[in-house]
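Here we describe the complex-level prediction in full. Unlike the single-chain runs in Section 2.1, the two entities below were treated as one system.
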Amino acid sequence: AQSVTQPDIHITVSEGASLELRCNYSYGATPYLFWYVQSPGQGLQLLLKYFSGDTLVQGIKGFEAEFKRSQSSFNLRKPSVHWSDAAEYFCAVGGMAAGNKLTFGGGTRVLVKP
Amino acid sequence: KAGVTQTPRYLIKTRGQQVTLSCSPISGHRSVSWYQQTPGQGLQFLFEYFSETQRNKGNFPGRFSGRQFSNSRSEMNVSTLELGDSALYLCASSLTTGGRNYGYTFGSGTRLTVV
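The structure predicted for the assembly as a whole is:
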Protein backbone atom coordinates (compact mmCIF):
# COMPACT_ATOMS: atom_id res chain seq x y z
CA ALA A 1 0.00 0.00 0.00
CA GLN A 2 1.18 3.50 -0.71
CA SER A 3 1.77 6.03 2.05
CA VAL A 4 3.30 9.45 2.65
CA THR A 5 4.81 10.80 5.84
CA GLN A 6 5.44 14.44 6.53
CA PRO A 7 7.25 14.37 9.87
CA ASP A 8 6.82 18.05 10.69
CA ILE A 9 3.31 19.20 11.54
CA HIS A 10 4.33 22.82 12.07
CA ILE A 11 7.38 24.80 11.00
CA THR A 12 8.08 28.42 11.89
CA VAL A 13 10.60 30.27 9.78
CA SER A 14 11.72 33.89 9.64
CA GLU A 15 11.04 35.87 6.50
CA GLY A 16 14.08 35.69 4.25
CA ALA A 17 15.33 32.45 5.79
CA SER A 18 15.50 29.16 3.93
CA LEU A 19 12.81 26.51 4.21
CA GLU A 20 12.92 22.75 3.86
CA LEU A 21 9.88 20.50 4.22
CA ARG A 22 10.39 16.79 4.53
CA CYS A 23 8.44 14.08 2.75
CA ASN A 24 8.98 10.33 2.84
CA TYR A 25 6.91 7.98 0.75
CA SER A 26 6.21 4.31 0.30
CA TYR A 27 5.17 3.07 -3.14
CA GLY A 28 5.62 -0.25 -4.82
CA ALA A 29 6.36 0.97 -8.33
CA THR A 30 7.75 4.05 -10.03
CA PRO A 31 6.17 6.93 -8.12
CA TYR A 32 4.73 10.15 -9.32
CA LEU A 33 5.43 12.74 -6.61
CA PHE A 34 3.77 16.07 -6.00
CA TRP A 35 3.88 19.04 -3.69
CA TYR A 36 0.74 21.10 -3.23
CA VAL A 37 0.11 24.26 -1.22
CA GLN A 38 -3.18 25.22 0.39
CA SER A 39 -4.19 28.58 1.81
CA PRO A 40 -7.01 28.64 4.37
CA GLY A 41 -10.37 27.79 2.86
CA GLN A 42 -8.90 27.23 -0.57
CA GLY A 43 -8.19 24.29 -2.83
CA LEU A 44 -4.80 22.78 -3.58
CA GLN A 45 -2.34 24.53 -5.84
CA LEU A 46 0.36 22.44 -7.50
CA LEU A 47 3.87 23.65 -6.70
CA LEU A 48 5.81 21.00 -8.60
CA LYS A 49 5.73 17.39 -9.72
CA TYR A 50 8.16 14.60 -10.44
CA PHE A 51 7.43 11.87 -12.95
CA SER A 52 10.86 10.80 -14.14
CA GLY A 53 14.19 12.15 -15.29
CA ASP A 54 16.14 14.86 -13.51
CA THR A 55 15.79 14.32 -9.78
CA LEU A 56 15.91 18.04 -8.98
CA VAL A 57 12.59 19.58 -9.91
CA GLN A 58 11.88 23.28 -10.18
CA GLY A 59 8.43 24.58 -9.38
CA ILE A 60 6.50 27.78 -9.08
CA LYS A 61 7.08 30.53 -6.53
CA GLY A 62 10.78 29.69 -6.27
CA PHE A 63 10.30 26.21 -4.84
CA GLU A 64 12.33 23.15 -5.76
CA ALA A 65 12.30 19.53 -4.66
CA GLU A 66 14.76 16.69 -4.88
CA PHE A 67 13.77 13.08 -5.46
CA LYS A 68 16.01 10.58 -3.69
CA ARG A 69 14.99 7.05 -4.51
CA SER A 70 17.45 5.46 -2.08
CA GLN A 71 15.91 7.42 0.79
CA SER A 72 12.30 7.33 -0.50
CA SER A 73 12.23 11.08 -0.01
CA PHE A 74 11.00 14.10 -1.92
CA ASN A 75 11.89 17.15 0.16
CA LEU A 76 10.73 20.62 -0.75
CA ARG A 77 13.02 23.64 -0.45
CA LYS A 78 12.96 27.37 -0.89
CA PRO A 79 16.07 29.52 -0.41
CA SER A 80 14.31 32.61 0.93
CA VAL A 81 10.73 32.61 2.19
CA HIS A 82 8.27 35.45 1.85
CA TRP A 83 5.39 36.21 4.22
CA SER A 84 3.02 35.02 1.48
CA ASP A 85 4.49 31.50 1.76
CA ALA A 86 2.62 30.98 5.02
CA ALA A 87 0.23 28.12 4.21
CA GLU A 88 -0.14 24.36 4.53
CA TYR A 89 1.95 22.16 2.30
CA PHE A 90 1.06 18.66 1.22
CA CYS A 91 3.24 16.00 -0.32
CA ALA A 92 1.49 13.33 -2.39
CA VAL A 93 2.39 10.13 -4.19
CA GLY A 94 0.54 8.42 -6.99
CA GLY A 95 1.00 6.68 -10.27
CA MET A 96 -0.59 4.49 -12.84
CA ALA A 97 -0.07 1.43 -10.64
CA ALA A 98 -2.32 3.10 -8.07
CA GLY A 99 -5.10 3.63 -10.56
CA ASN A 100 -4.69 7.38 -10.68
CA LYS A 101 -5.17 7.68 -6.93
CA LEU A 102 -3.17 10.22 -4.94
CA THR A 103 -2.17 9.50 -1.36
CA PHE A 104 -1.40 12.59 0.68
CA GLY A 105 0.73 13.19 3.70
CA GLY A 106 -0.74 14.85 6.74
CA GLY A 107 0.56 18.26 5.74
CA THR A 108 3.03 20.75 7.21
CA ARG A 109 1.78 24.13 8.32
CA VAL A 110 4.33 26.87 7.70
CA LEU A 111 4.29 30.04 9.74
CA VAL A 112 6.45 32.97 8.64
CA LYS A 113 7.77 35.41 11.25
CA PRO A 114 8.45 38.99 10.16
CA LYS B 1 -7.76 28.28 -19.94
CA ALA B 2 -10.46 27.70 -17.36
CA GLY B 3 -9.53 25.66 -14.30
CA VAL B 4 -11.52 23.09 -12.41
CA THR B 5 -14.88 24.48 -11.34
CA GLN B 6 -16.71 23.15 -8.32
CA THR B 7 -20.21 24.17 -7.34
CA PRO B 8 -21.52 25.18 -4.94
CA ARG B 9 -18.68 26.63 -2.87
CA TYR B 10 -20.56 26.33 0.41
CA LEU B 11 -23.43 24.15 1.48
CA ILE B 12 -25.27 23.61 4.75
CA LYS B 13 -27.41 20.51 5.10
CA THR B 14 -29.29 18.75 7.87
CA ARG B 15 -28.53 15.25 9.09
CA GLY B 16 -30.37 12.66 7.07
CA GLN B 17 -30.60 14.77 3.94
CA GLN B 18 -28.73 14.05 0.74
CA VAL B 19 -26.45 16.34 -1.24
CA THR B 20 -25.04 16.54 -4.77
CA LEU B 21 -21.80 18.30 -5.58
CA SER B 22 -20.65 19.19 -9.07
CA CYS B 23 -17.26 19.36 -10.74
CA SER B 24 -16.39 20.59 -14.22
CA PRO B 25 -12.86 19.52 -15.20
CA ILE B 26 -10.40 21.33 -17.41
CA SER B 27 -11.37 21.05 -21.04
CA GLY B 28 -9.84 17.90 -22.52
CA HIS B 29 -9.31 16.20 -19.18
CA ARG B 30 -11.21 12.94 -18.99
CA SER B 31 -10.18 11.84 -15.51
CA VAL B 32 -11.96 13.29 -12.49
CA SER B 33 -11.14 12.35 -8.90
CA TRP B 34 -12.82 13.33 -5.66
CA TYR B 35 -11.21 13.82 -2.26
CA GLN B 36 -12.54 14.53 1.20
CA GLN B 37 -10.54 16.79 3.50
CA THR B 38 -11.21 16.91 7.24
CA PRO B 39 -9.04 18.12 10.13
CA GLY B 40 -8.97 14.66 11.67
CA GLN B 41 -8.45 12.43 8.65
CA GLY B 42 -6.71 14.78 6.26
CA LEU B 43 -7.08 14.30 2.52
CA GLN B 44 -8.68 11.02 1.57
CA PHE B 45 -9.43 9.61 -1.87
CA LEU B 46 -13.10 8.97 -2.61
CA PHE B 47 -13.20 7.77 -6.23
CA GLU B 48 -11.97 8.39 -9.73
CA TYR B 49 -13.87 8.45 -12.99
CA PHE B 50 -12.55 8.17 -16.50
CA SER B 51 -14.74 8.26 -19.59
CA GLU B 52 -17.89 7.81 -17.51
CA THR B 53 -16.54 4.72 -15.72
CA GLN B 54 -15.50 4.49 -12.10
CA ARG B 55 -11.95 3.15 -12.17
CA ASN B 56 -10.99 3.35 -8.53
CA LYS B 57 -12.77 3.75 -5.23
CA GLY B 58 -11.55 4.65 -1.77
CA ASN B 59 -12.62 3.25 1.55
CA PHE B 60 -15.89 5.10 2.06
CA PRO B 61 -19.38 3.74 2.76
CA GLY B 62 -21.88 3.22 -0.01
CA ARG B 63 -23.63 6.47 0.94
CA PHE B 64 -20.93 8.15 -1.13
CA SER B 65 -21.42 7.76 -4.85
CA GLY B 66 -20.54 9.52 -8.01
CA ARG B 67 -20.93 9.61 -11.72
CA GLN B 68 -19.39 11.18 -14.76
CA PHE B 69 -21.15 12.47 -17.82
CA SER B 70 -20.14 12.26 -21.47
CA ASN B 71 -18.73 15.82 -21.30
CA SER B 72 -16.48 14.68 -18.40
CA ARG B 73 -18.36 16.72 -15.80
CA SER B 74 -18.76 14.78 -12.61
CA GLU B 75 -21.11 14.77 -9.67
CA MET B 76 -20.78 13.17 -6.30
CA ASN B 77 -23.70 12.37 -4.07
CA VAL B 78 -23.86 11.74 -0.37
CA SER B 79 -27.07 10.25 0.98
CA THR B 80 -28.31 10.14 4.57
CA LEU B 81 -25.87 12.78 5.71
CA GLU B 82 -24.10 12.41 9.03
CA LEU B 83 -22.36 15.08 11.10
CA GLY B 84 -19.04 13.45 10.26
CA ASP B 85 -19.56 14.15 6.57
CA SER B 86 -18.84 17.82 7.21
CA ALA B 87 -15.71 18.45 5.18
CA LEU B 88 -14.11 20.20 2.25
CA TYR B 89 -14.74 18.13 -0.87
CA LEU B 90 -12.14 18.59 -3.56
CA CYS B 91 -12.30 17.59 -7.16
CA ALA B 92 -9.22 17.05 -9.31
CA SER B 93 -9.00 16.65 -13.04
CA SER B 94 -6.12 15.12 -14.90
CA LEU B 95 -5.00 14.52 -18.43
CA THR B 96 -4.42 10.83 -18.83
CA THR B 97 -3.47 9.55 -22.22
CA GLY B 98 -1.43 6.67 -23.53
CA GLY B 99 -1.29 5.18 -20.06
CA ARG B 100 0.45 8.23 -18.67
CA ASN B 101 -0.86 10.73 -16.16
CA TYR B 102 0.21 14.34 -16.59
CA GLY B 103 -0.70 15.66 -13.18
CA TYR B 104 -3.72 16.72 -11.18
CA THR B 105 -5.38 20.13 -11.03
CA PHE B 106 -7.66 20.76 -8.10
CA GLY B 107 -10.71 22.93 -7.82
CA SER B 108 -11.40 25.30 -4.92
CA GLY B 109 -13.63 22.77 -3.25
CA THR B 110 -17.12 22.63 -1.80
CA ARG B 111 -17.36 23.22 1.94
CA LEU B 112 -20.16 21.01 3.26
CA THR B 113 -21.47 21.57 6.76
CA VAL B 114 -23.94 19.08 8.20
CA VAL B 115 -25.99 20.31 11.15
